[in-house]
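Appendix B, record 7
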Amino acid sequence: MERILFCLGGGPWDEFTVEVNPDDIAAKGPEYALGLRRLGVSRISMGIQSFDDAVLKRMGRRHDSAQAKAAYEILRQAGFDNISVDFIFGFQAGMDAEALGCGLDSLHGGLPEHISCYQLSIEEGSGLGKMVEKGLYAMPEDSECERQYLSLCDVLRCRGYEHYEISNWAQPGRRSRHNSSYWNHSPYIGYGPGAHSLFVDGGRFVRRWNNPDLRSYLDAAGSGVFDTVRGEETLTPEQIREERIMLGLRTEEGIPSSLVGDNSVLVASPVPGNVRIPENRWFISDSIICNLI
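Structure tokens (predicted):
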């Protein structure tokens, strides 16, 4: 199922993103991609994950690298000039970041405008989770995952990408607007089962969330009464401070130094008065942030 993300800016649907899988685009073809354009979609986020077919197969992905490249070309031919692609690292030892770079270079229509790279995580009950339980799969050591991450940083920097958030790189002017809103602690609205929202009400920050159960949500929609599937909380000043530290230190801009005081790990940010975690320590950012909050 596609996920739809909006970000309003200077004009209607300034950023209208749809998340897709490569096999869906390859199977549905050019007419489907053109249909998305006609609906006003301005940005596509596609989970390629890897250009290595053996890795994709072991991950249980439905597509191979050829389908991913074909899907990318279909999107370009449909007129999409703002495409984000996702990759996963830390799946196995020895991942070659240069091979990923060569895969990017081979895409027809030029490099994607945005790239997200996430370290593999094992979800409970997933296929990989069951393999771990049976001793059939083991994740690489942290030192190997860190090597892969830093190699990715080098490869993408050489291709002109700005590393503006721990897991996100963009060509100049192509940063994700909706994600940036989350990291900046800006208000946002989420629709549908499992969606979260953040409102500012008279100086109060209120977080609201919907029950992830689809049937319960549909029943509420039918009755027009959503109280049974909706929860909310008003954030305390301490929660707001902690979230600003946690989210802001994921970014290149960092946070105001007044939030954390002097700290030998943090360095000056491009934003005057702000401090940030240097890129070569972003891999261990969770432990740094935990010590600060």
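Remarks on this record: The CA atoms of residues 254 and 276 lie 4 Å apart. The chain is about 35% helix and 20% strand.
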